[in-house]
Amino acid sequence: MTSKVYMEILQQLYRIIEEDGLSAGDKIPSERELSERLKAGRSSVREALRSLEFLGIIETRRGEGTYLKEFGEHQLIGLLGMFILQEKKAKEDLAETKWLIEEIGLTLACERRTEVHLRELQMLLKQPLDYETFFHWVLKAGNNYLLERIWRVLNDFYQWQHGTISLPHSFYEQMHQSLEESDLEKIRALFAEHVKHSR
């Protein structure tokens, strides 16, 4: 089975799950029924189902059938990230890619943050603030869910390889002021000085 056919079957399986309104704990159609609905060979369907089972999205119960599993929202992208980041070049590019996403996140936060977001950050600043918590806020304020999910995975792998990033509280205070003033040039300068240059 070619990768194109394989991806098409996985996409069609996902559509069936959506169309049938299935959720965690529900039984999915049998291999035979899926083969008929997808107009695909049973061996191809079986292979796609095995991949979904490996990723923890479905489970087969002997004598009962196949069911959708409850899985964490970051599990799939995390597993894919684990395989992608096995490559030496990918490991070398990890920090740069994470920084690029953080810079995009800061740009979006600068454009999209609301007064509510700024008050949330002000509350966070009343206690010691760490790098991860700050960027969770940044990506939430930037309002791009996919970017946030990708960053979470890259950040987890970065911490595993390099440890946590520690910055002075003044960095977060200056970021808050710059975000409040929508001063993107200042935001980028702070990020470059404290994050990229320090590493």
Would you write up a description of this structure?
This protein has ten helices and two strands. With 199 residues, it is mainly α. The protein has two domains: 3-68, Orthogonal Bundle (Arc Repressor Mutant, subunit A), CATH 1.10.10; 76-196, GntR ligand-binding domain-like (Four Helix Bundle (Hemerythrin (Met), subunit A), Up-down Bundle). Strands 1-2 form a two-stranded antiparallel ribbon. Helix 2 crosses helix 3, helix 5 (88-112) packs across helix 8 and helix 7 packs antiparallel against helix 8. The termini are far apart. The relative contact order is 0.09. The mean pLDDT is 85.
Gist of the model:
The protein has 199 residues and is mostly helical. The chain has 10 helices and 2 strands; from the N terminus they run H-H-H-E-E-H-H-H-H-H-H-H.
Strand content: under 5%
Q: Identify the overall geometry.
A: elongated
CATH class of the largest domain: Mainly Alpha
β-strand number = 2
Write out the strand line-up for the largest beta sheet, numbering strands in chain order.
1-2
Q: SSE order, as H and E?
A: HHHEEHHHHHHH
- Give the helix proportion (percent range): 55-70%
Tally the helices: what do you get? 10
CATH superfamily of the largest domain: GntR ligand-binding domain-like
Tell me the distance between the termini.
45 Å
CA-based gyration radius: 22 Å
CATH-defined topology of the largest domain: Four Helix Bundle (Hemerythrin (Met), subunit A)
Spans of 5+ residues with little confidence (pLDDT < 50)? Answer: none
